[in-house]
Amino acid sequence: MRFLRSKFILRFLRSKFILLLLECKIYFAFFTFQIYFAFFWSAKFILRFFGVQNLFCEYAIGVPHRVSTNQRREASRLYHSLYHPFPKLLFFMKFVDEATIEVIAGKGGDGCLSFRREKFIPYGGPNGGDGGDGGSVYLQADSGLNTLVDFRFKRLFRAKVGQNGLGSECTGKKGENFFIKVPVGTLVYNIETEEFLGDLVKPTQTLLVAKGGQHGLGNVHFKSSTNRAPQRITKGTPGEIRSLRLELQVLADVGLLGLPNAGKSTFIRAVSKARPKVADYPFTTLYPNLGVVSIELDRSFVIADIPGLIEGAAEGFGLGVQFLRHLSRTRLLLHLVDIAPLDSDPVQDTLKIIQELEKYSPDLAAKERWLLLNKTDLLLPEEQKQHCEAIIKALDWQGPVFQVSALSKQGCLDVCYKVMNYLEDK
């Protein structure tokens, strides 16, 4: 009896000890989680208070020194790792408009070497079937995607191989085709030959990028009057292997141009339901944003906002001209100019953007461009007309000119109606 009592007491104490350990683990995990949040939110406050955010922006855009693309990426990654409590999640959601992948089509199935074996039929003859064709690799445009970030983590894609042939003249099963979903507006290039393979501009559009191998022939194809028991077959051919470069060019009717803090993001917020980030420091926009401008029930167009350009962007300054490719499909460019900058001249700012466009692509520079003189609300009403006329005269601008205030939405609706009429006429 005493033995059973002591055994029960030991079991009771052991269960209590296990519960105590679990409680300690829970408290420790909760305490660690609190320390993690306290550290990163305090770092966030310090960065904002001391202006380190602008310091990282200056380093990332190459002011005052010229930096390479890798250095800009490292600066941006360093800033986000300090500023955001979950840097990995932020990195996963970033906009990616260029990727490289490798596609391997399936091998064709081999032919079968087989002979008919049946009772009372001594000379059954060959009955080896053909193999199945290898699966091919296709790219398919998907309207639900808007970035190539998925290809940062998976870059190798294989189609199924074809099944080998069987006896009784049975053909092997064909390999299943593999479809890779990409955003609408993706351009496809062969890395090895620099050949342009295709452009996916419509939803559900497909493009063959690697053809599957051909099937092999069974020995039934090689019988003849002189060779009644052929021992010959053919093997399936290997599928194509290609290294591809994918480039995304967003589909938009109108593109916005301008220096950082010219008011592009504010303008797209004023005319559409897009909500890009807006702040009082340069390079707030780090990737293109699309917005749909609805004039009436059946009249609308798509407008694209890209990160701002600075002088020397064609040589690698700032975010460079890597995002200008997204304006290649547009039919009209809206050039936004801050008419009351603090430390620069609006005329020189406009000429800088025009020079960078000409360096990047003469075709893009030749597109129809309208001038939008933004931030008119910063000037007195009696000064606006005189100041805008001086800018137009200094630029010798021959195209349409509009005076707008994206913040107060003054003049924005008139611009949208004129743009809609222009697109319909063209």
Question: Could you characterize what this model shows?
Answer:
By secondary structure, the protein is an alpha/beta fold. The chain has three domains: 51-79, no CATH class; 98-248, GTP1/OBG domain (Spo0b-associated Gtp-binding Protein, Chain: A); 254-425, P-loop containing nucleotide triphosphate hydrolases (Rossmann fold), CATH 3.40.50.300. 32% of the residues lie in helices and 19% in strands. It has helices at residues 2-50, 52-61, 69-83, 87-92, 264-271, 346-360, 362-365, 381-395, 412-425; strands at 98-104, 137-142, 156-158, 178-183, 186-190, 195-200, 206-210, 241-248, 254-257, 289-296, 299-305, 332-338, 369-374, 401-403. Strands 10-11-9-12-13-14 form a six-stranded mixed beta sheet, sandwiched between helices. Strand 10 (289-296) and strand 11 form a beta hairpin. It is rod-shaped, with a radius of gyration of 33 Å. The relative contact order is 0.10. Residues 44-73 and 77-93 have low confidence and may be disordered.
Detail the topology: elements first, then pairings.
Elements: H1 2-50, H2 52-61, H3 69-83, H4 87-92, E1 98-104, E2 137-142, E3 156-158, E4 178-183, E5 186-190, E6 195-200, E7 206-210, E8 241-248, E9 254-257, H5 264-271, E10 289-296, E11 299-305, E12 332-338, H6 346-360, H7 362-365, E13 369-374, H8 381-395, E14 401-403, H9 412-425
Parallel strand pairs: 1-3, 2-4, 9-11, 9-12, 12-13, 13-14
Antiparallel strand pairs: 1-8, 2-7, 5-6, 5-8, 10-11
Helix pairs in contact: 2-3, 6-8
